Amino acid sequence: MSNAESTIRLTVAQAIVRYLMNQFIEIDGVRTRICGGGFGIFGHGNVPCLGEALYTVRKDLPLYRGQNEQSMGFAAAAYAKYHLRRRFMFCTASAGPGTANLLTASALAHANRLPMLMLCGDTFLTRLPDPVLQQLEHFNNPSLGLNDAFKAVTRYWDRITHPAQILQTLPAALATMLDPADCGPAFLALPQDVQGWAHDYPESFFAPRVHRIRRQAPDAEDIITAARLLRAAMRPMIIAGGGVQYSGAVAELTAFAETHGIPVVETIAGRANLLADHALNAGPIGVTGSDSANAIAAEADVILAVGTRLQDFTTGSWTAFARDAQIIGLNVGRHDASKHLSQPLIGDAKLGLTALGDAVSDYAAPSDWTARARSERQKWDAYVAENVAPGNRPNSYAQAIGVVNALCDPRDRIVAAAGGLPAEVTANWRTLDIGTVDVEFGFSCMGYEIAGGWGARIAQSEGEPDRDTIVFTGDGSYLMLNSDLYSSVLTGKKLIVLVLDNGGFAVINKLQNNTGNESFNTLIADCPTVPQPFCVDFEAHARAMGANAETVANPAELAEAFIRAKASDKTCVIVMQVDPHDGWTTEGHAWWEVGTPQVSDSASVREKHAEIEAERSRQRHGV
After folding, report:
1. What is the pTM of this model?
2. What does DSSP say about strands 185-191 and 156-159: parallel, antiparallel, or unpaired?
3. pLDDT digits over 75-130, tens only?
4. Rounded distance between C-alpha atoms, residue 203 and residue 525, angstroms
5. Are both 152 and 240 inside the same structural domain?
6. Which of 271, 280, 282, 492 has its CA nearest to residue 401?
7. What is the SS3 assignment for 591-603?
8. Burial of 368 (0-12, 13-18, 19+ CB in 10 A)
9. Cis link prior to 218 (omega < 30° from 0)?
10. Quick one: 123 and 194 in the same domain?
11. Alpha-carbon torsion 328, 332, 334, 336, what sign?
């Protein structure tokens, strides 16, 4: 009798696909394939071998043909975000510029700690045909190529140089993508010859396997220390970040806040942790936040930061908090939990909130502090109601947000990204249901909006097909990357896209003016190389890609168009011009550090530099 293990002879590409097909995760009691499929544009570097392997499983592992590799990556990131990092998509590109296009998307996934697998062609391992089409030659380092650029923007990177290598590489890449503390994109460089090389793989490697997301309990001594700090707090506050949702800890967060009467503020990534009308929801915090949250943050003495990386838009470049405020950092990542001399509570948010709650079981924040937070939120709600209301004033982002907020279904998903809309959505959107807002501001990436909407809609179709994905985008982001309107039409994944046209990069023009500079090269009208500005016909452009489209003149017409879009079964684009100068949300902003000239011929630039530098005295110092 032989003890030899059974083997199966497969190419590297076939083995990768077979492995992905057999990796599962249990979500809400249902076993689901971890990899939901992929996005692919084929070229000479991936179509002969990886394409052949994917063709055989096309019914079980759907491959969506994108229009641009960068937008494929954005779609994959949005898909993973919808699924709370429990599922991912792969992206495949050829061996040259197609792969290079994925760099920005990989950086976005890295900044947002989102899983995405990239399977990209590479030059020949044998080097016999070198230099090949699209190869970047480094004369003193022949092993260096384009794919090495991804080392800076991935959590896991490998080049497959032998077929047996994937026996170690694939489980390691998957473990990284499922690791709550180290989650992010994984990149596999696949040389064109190696993709097709065959190997006798052990059949056990392809046996179906059910994975789970690891939950790490915080250290017991750290709980005791954090509990001691919280018990002494007279003005406690909770910052709820995106990690609350990734942990599935919304119920625990809500119960913790209610039990102890502690106000909660939300980060941009943490929007939709609490409903808008929850009594302890003090509003969004930071540069694009609310007066209510920032007022509470400025006076808080103990801050429990849950699942947030405390980026500058949350902290107001570290001016939002009192210098002597003590931060407790509850986070699965040591790096995030320890920022600015925080008391680290390294562990899963769900387990951490439960353990900390048990340790401070009878603690309650002073009632006057909780009442103060409620009062501040009521004042902010009144401001937002006025800010989003149509009236005798120019069209604005806020008014468009108000229209959609009033008419959408509570489970519709909202997607926004770069430009002025993330700030306006964060400040003005009233959350109708948990986990329904995707404002990509980790990388603040123009072009994410429509592509991310498409990826979110693919994910939404798997669980909530009767709900809509609603995209807010400005004209700048639309012009940068719009081709997935066509993708959504081709694949039958309906989007409702609001294109709010302010004639250029208006939010950067606002920043330009706010730092004392004249408008220059931001609004189309202020570009010296543009002799005669004109408006793009976004309606006609969207129609040309197969979408329904209409242009509206004001919020009232927008409401009517939105109702029509909701009733449609096809991607709809609604275009409305908004004023680039007036109508911005003027309240709620914390200080934000930007570099300004120390020397300038402009008096206004010098004056603004002095104003900005004066605020620096409020910055906390830490690591």
Report:
1. 0.97
2. parallel
3. 999 999 999 999 999 999 999 999 999 999 999 999 999 999 999 999 999 999 99
4. 64
5. no
6. 271
7. CCCCCCCCCCCCH
8. exposed
9. no
10. yes
11. negative
